[in-house]
Each structure stands twice: as C-alpha cells, then as structure tokens.
Design brief:
The chain is of the alpha+beta class. The protein has one domain: Aminopeptidase (3-Layer(aba) Sandwich). A 7-stranded mixed sheet has the order 1-2-3-4-5-7-6, sandwiched between helices. Strand 6 and strand 7 form a beta hairpin. The radius of gyration is 15 Å and the shape is globular. About 30% of the residues are buried.
Length: about 160
Amino acid sequence: MHIRPANKKDLEAIWSLWKVVVNQKVYFPYDDSFSREQIESSWINLNNNCFVAELEKEIVGAYILKPNQPGYGSHIANASYMVNSQKRGMGLGHKLCAHSINAAKELGYYAMQFNLVVSTNSPAIKVWLANGFEIIGTIPGGFKHFEKGYVDAHIFYRKL
C-alpha cells in the first residue's frame, strides 16, 4: 500500500468511497443530504491535507488533516479517515493513522484531536488507542446510529 497526497484525478474515487462510508450510517455524522459540492468544499477539499491510500492502483482509503479550530485553536490538528469496507482488517486504518501523525508533526501541529468517534466503532477505537490517542471525553448520545439509536461519541486526543 502507498499513501500519497490526493490530487484532482482522485476526486471521483474519494467521492465514491465517501458515499459508501456515509451510506453505512454508522461512522460519520454526515447524511446523504450533503451534495458532492458541499463535501468537496469541506472534506475532500484539496486545500486540506487530503491523502489517499492506494493498493494495486485502487484507492482503498483516504484521510484529511486540518486545524481542529481556527486561530488560537489551530495548533491542534483534526483528522478524519475512510477505509474501503471490503479492505477492512488489512491494517489500513493503522497505516493511515500513523501517516497522519507523521504528517501532523511535519506540519508543526502540537497535538491531534478527533471530535466525534462513535462508541460502536470498535475497530477505529482500537486503532486510535494503539496509536497513542486517549479518550478525553464522551458525549452521551452524541451520534444517532442507524440501527442502535443514540450512542455515545468519544473525543480522542494525542500530543505530538
């Protein structure tokens, strides 16, 4: 697997991956009411540090790395990740996370924070904990899960 910065040629593949992940209704707070234009201007924005994971010339994962907040909060990075559901269990999440930690360090961030990690997303939680993140807070009922109703959401943090 190779992780590299995304480019305009990758937008269609990232959008396709995005739709699959969002339509599962269990990982991201976005719903299907968001248009491609809205997502391209926020999540898939190449002005963000957007990276893709390629396996045999297929994009199998992606992540963005951006300031968690503007101004005086911009020294903390925020990242979001997507992995092709058919490629889960291959360590892609670990590799994307490790890559994002190194990228955040190179960009001069002080720490990283994930604002909404769904408590039922056990694979992601294992990856974040294994990569040195800790849960610093829990939002009771912070995510409306498609099948389970309101479930908790965690805030993860890691100093770089």
